[in-house]
Design a protein that fits this description.
Roadblock/LAMTOR2_dom, Mycobact_SerProt_Inhib_Rv3364c, globular, Beta-Lactamase, 135 residues, alpha+beta, Putative regulator of Ras-like GTPase activity (Roadblock/LC7/MglB family)
């Protein structure tokens, strides 16, 4: 997995450089384990990854209330005082999370995140751990 993190560094940097006001980028598994990070320290990335696991689970529960969908979370955007948080599905059992300051162009961020996921989604997938069911 170390090699995978190294290979993702330039792609995450490209996202951060391409969208002004990007603060932190974290790639995580569905169970909240950090797979890669950019623009943040390891402790912050680990906290964000853990929080994202709960958030994606909550989003999936809400998603099941829609009669014509499969309940899978695609994108969550949260606006808080000071900025925005984005969580996007990025492959089977993998997610891309971004924190950005208030001045971020929300449309540009969503577009660039979708582009990144489309390019590397298969590389971001994580297999289920022993005993886990596939979501």
């Amino acid at each position: 997995m170390i090699q995978q993190r190294t290979n993702m560094d330039w792609m995450l940097k490209e996202l951060a450089d391409g969208v002004p006001h990007t603060r932190h980028i974290v790639v995580l598994s569905a169970d909240g384990l950090r797979m890669a990070q950019y623009g943040t320290d390891t402790d912050t990335a680990d906290r964000l990854a853990a929080a994202c696991a709960g958030l994606q689970s909550l989003a999936a529960a809400v998603g099941h209330e829609f009669p014509h969908g499969d309940g899978r979370m695609r994108l969550v955007v949260i606006e808080v005082s000071g900025g925005f948080f984005y969580l996007m599905a990025a492959g089977a059992r993998a997610y891309l999370a971004v924190l950005a300051d208030e001045g971020v162009d929300a449309g540009l961020m969503g577009h660039r995140m979708r582009d990144l996921v489309a390019r590397i989604g298969a590389h971001l997938s994580t297999p289920p751990r022993n005993g886990e069911q596939v979501a």
